[in-house]
Amino acid sequence: MTIDPTNPNPQTTATEPITEDRMSTQPTTAVTIAERLHAGEPYVLAFGGQATPWRATLEELAGLDHDLANELVAIDAAVADRLAPVATDLLTVTPRGGRFFTDAGAPVAPAPQGGAADTADVSVPGILFAQHAALACLPGSGIDPVGEHVPGAVIGHSQGVLGVALLEALRTSRQEGADGHGESVVQVHAIARLIGAAAARTTGRLNLGTVGETTPMLSVRGVTRNVLDGVLAQVPGAERIAVGVVNGRQAHILSGRPGDLEQVITALQAAARRSERDRKERRRGGAVLNPITEFLATSVPFHTPLLAAAVDDVVAWAGRTGLDATWPGIWPWPC
Known about the structure:
Layout: H1 33-38, E1 44-47, H2 54-62, H3 66-82, H4 87-91, H5 120-137, E2 153-156, H6 160-175, H7 183-205, E3 217-221, H8 225-232, E4 242-248, E5 251-255, H9 258-280, E6 292-295, H10 308-321
Parallel strand pairs: 1-2
Antiparallel strand pairs: 3-5, 3-6, 4-5
């Protein structure tokens, strides 16, 4: 007889004789992730980038934890002080002022209406604050990536490289006894603020921003790189379009002007029709081309040379504020 805690009516079967040490009426307790990590199981910590629901994360984590909210507000105030030498420049991009949070810990900038994306001066620091909040909450679940449970590897997707830098800064701050308010932590958040402001300013100056529901970043799935390159070669102005991110063999993110990206969709649709026609007429075998396109919820074409001026702005601002703009791993993002 085998006792299955998931089955309220266990059946007796003709198996090996029952012995006292083989039979147990107690359900097996599931091993938690924290317990596995305490036992030394290695893991990888990954930080995401743009188009992540950072507002919901902040509301969920900091909205009910006053200590965490106060910590983030204190970091925000320190960042504003550190960026004071360039405050006037930043005000031309972010007229609401140099603070990201209100004293109550809510983002100063209201959420955009109609499902629109936040501008980069809001989303870039906002995403990093949400990641900071997540890291701060992990010890409460028995996982301390800054101390006892160091990940085997840390990776950042796109803007996630800032999260990687933040984790390292949090470790440095703890070693210095500064906890989450150390100078290295403030520096990473300040660099994020500068990157967001510079990206937003360059996007506005070059008229690269969202037009209606068309954004400057397009996800293309179901198409190999060779096919995608062939389609792009037929699009006027393709030199302004960058294959910014490769998420898989048939998953790519394009960055560029919204109008140019709309032409890519048109060209992909035409290629799909040709593929279907060739298959019906037996000119070509194999699967019919079936591209899936989707505009990302972002207001800036990250991962494109079009943002080269934004990098120059960040370096110049960092120099005026005494920040290290050469933080390992951050560049070449956002270009």
